[in-house]
Amino acid sequence: MSSHGISPPSSGVDEQPRKSEKTRSDILTTAAKLFRDQGYQATTMQQIARAARLEAGSIYYHFTSKEQILAEVLDIGVRSLYVELKTLIEEAEAGGAPFRETLGRLVETHLRFLLTKSDFTSANIRNYPMLPEELRAPHRRLRHAYAGLWQHFLTRASETGALREDIALRSMSRFILSAMNWTVEWYDAGRYPVGALSKRMTKLLLDGMCVKSDSASVPPVAMTAGQIVIAQFGVKSAQTRLDILKAAARILRDSGYKATTIRRIAAEAKMEPGSVYYHFESKEKIIDEVLRTGLTDLITGVSEAVSQSRQSGDYRAAIATAIATHLSCLFSASEFTSANIRSFGMLPKELRQRHRRIRQDYGKIWDDLLREAQEKGVLRPDIEIKPLRQAMLGALNWTVTWFDQNKRNNPGYESLEELSAMLTGLLLDGICKPAGKMGDG
């Protein structure tokens, strides 16, 4: 600024690069929000340009393709979070901050990025699991590095005696990230402060939901969703109809709604596209049936399993049974449940609305069980039931993005039964050793 308080005229040399950089930043910010809200597959370059207030062709001056935009959005989403979390951990270690206090700060930071601070982070979290391998591969190293920060933090805590010793730190780290990441699917940060969520989440992660910390075994699951699907479709409908539904469920689960086309469904079911219309009049009818079946499986399976355990009055066993049944529906019974869980958040609004009631019915089964357990003195009295159920199911549901039971015989990987027992123990009793046995407050 000059001595007269008037800025000197610009030479014009840097004006165009600055404008170009701002436009590029606007495009990325716009794309991140669209990817977060409706998914990468459903977003077009025209939509991005229109939302960024650009002419349709102008966007190609800054980016050659949607894939290039995605690559930068994904990188920014994790890199900025990585830098901030790494700084927090280093400062905590240098200052000797207590484990529980530091975990609270890390949880709050992760949730803040995910829910309020960065559409880039939430776009990464929601889209990455459903992207083709060639689009995921360049970002795997950075995501592993971020997970490595959590494992490093837990390793240091374990060395002080703060953590329980019966669960591998790698599994514990995944449990923590799973519980937090699923909040992007259900938490309304516009209505409720993230700080309140982070406090509840930290308490649940540290100490679990139960008053007592007795070990609980996981009872056998009473019914699998596979049996339910056979009862519904194997007898009453033609095998071809079931094949179409299973093919659609696999594509919906792995690639999302937009990629689930009649042509792809037919190819997956090994039939001609025209033949699909003999059984279903539209793609929407197929998706409706897949979604309905997925939640019906859960409702039937969990209701029957819980009802048997509830009769004994052992509410820890009832909750453990519900967890085991939920996971069985997700991984070993059918494609329908995992397709519903994985894709629901980025389905078209009208499609989600049609299935919201049945999802609420499923939530009520859990709410009733948890409320009864709390009334019987099994759950901590300070826990609010609905947020507990949402966080708990989030920790279970997010496993569809990383658990592969086909790797159960490989070193470092769990079987479904081991995963169920591990998640049950962590949800019931938390990651910490019981009070009085810890080396760190």
Please outline the helices and strands.
Blueprint: H1 15-38, H2 45-51, H3 59-62, H4 66-95, H5 99-117, H6 119-127, H7 133-136, H8 140-159, H9 169-181, H10 194-207, H11 225-234, H12 239-255, H13 262-268, H14 273-279, H15 283-310, H16 315-333, H17 335-343, H18 349-375, H19 385-397, H20 416-429
Helix pairs in contact: 1-2, 1-4, 1-6, 4-5, 4-6, 4-8, 5-6, 5-10, 8-9, 9-19, 10-20, 11-15, 11-16, 12-13, 12-15, 12-17, 13-14, 15-16, 15-17, 15-18, 16-17, 16-18, 16-20, 18-19
Under the CATH scheme, the architecture of the largest domain is Orthogonal Bundle
Q: How would the global form be characterised?
A: globular
End-to-end separation in angstroms reads 54 Å
| Nearest-integer average pLDDT | 85
Helix count equals 20
Strand content: under 5%
The helical percent reads 55-70%
> What name does the CATH topology of the largest domain carry?
Tetracycline Repressor, domain 2
Low-confidence stretches: 1-13, 213-237, 436-441
What does this structure look like?
The protein is mainly alpha-helical. The chain has 2 domains: 20-162, Tetracycline Repressor, domain 2; 225-429, Tetracycline Repressor, domain 2 (Orthogonal Bundle), CATH 1.10.357.10. The protein has 20 helices and no strands. The protein has helices spanning 15-38, 45-51, 59-62, 66-95, 99-117, 119-127, 133-136, 140-159, 169-181, 194-207, 225-234, 239-255, 262-268, 273-279, 283-310, 315-333, 335-343, 349-375, 385-397, 416-429. α1 packs across α4 and α4 (66-95) packs parallel to α8. The radius of gyration is 24 Å and the shape is globular.
